[in-house]
Amino acid sequence: MERSNSSSGPAAKNREAEIRHILTILHKWGIHTLGQLAALDKEQLAARLGPEAIHMWERATGQSSRVLKLVRPPESFRESFEFENEIETAEPLLFMLHRFLEHLALRLDAIYLVAKELTLVITFANPPPDRTQDGFLRRRNGSDATPHKQIYERVFKIPQPTNDVDLLFRMLQTHLENFKSEYAIVAVALSAQPIKPAREQFGLFETTLRNPHKLLETLARFVALLGADRVGTPVLEETHRPDTFRIDPFSWCAVESPLPSGQNPHSGSDSHALRTAHPAAALRRF
Q1: pLDDT along the chain (286 residues), means of 10
Q2: CATH homologous superfamily for 78-198+207-222?
Q3: What pTM, to 2 d.p., does this model score?
């Protein structure tokens, strides 16, 4: 029989020393189990070892109870399904995704959270070639018969976090309208990244998007038509080449300025590549 006490302080140390002393005496008596301790007479045990031994005897006999500490396991907002037969059309896939969204929305609403990001993972039936572009990845599977599986993974950023099933489903449906694969689908998974509902107060001359979900749907259509590398925000490259830029995905988070208020942004010591100054076109009046 052992007892551990995680408390600190002189009183806790004295109590721990007393318990160890009682356990030493019980071991000398041949008492090594809870059943043997419960078989002893309560009054005689109190007369010989004191009140602390009575507490031990009551716990051994089930007459004393303690409050259990509630430990909640980490929430995992993920839904997955493996199809019995390989599918080659979008209808079964969209049906399962709609069910996933309904389940995730119910779970998020129950704890007052909303989804800020969705991750779609589609698993195919073939061992794929090595390629990682266009969202296709190669992942190791546990089976020796099919050591590799080709998966398609796509992350959907939600500009205004929500649990609206119809809005989220339209976002997935729009993306999958022009989705093409050479092989059949065997499994699908959908996970949501939760966040607390935002309550943001804008300044006098600041405003939000009129319909951020409509904008997201429009951007998804552009991505489906033009490709993910052709839709985004142009960003100038730090290079000696004039007018060189890249396309970054749209970011829905406001970027906070690292400079404190009142400081001149041009007073820093950061160096930047020189840009070619284009002269203004001359206007002529005839």
Answers
A1: 53 86 90 88 88 87 77 87 90 94 94 92 75 49 50 87 91 85 90 83 59 70 76 82 80 53 49 56 64
A2: DNA polymerase, Y-family, little finger domain (3.30.1490.100)
A3: 0.51
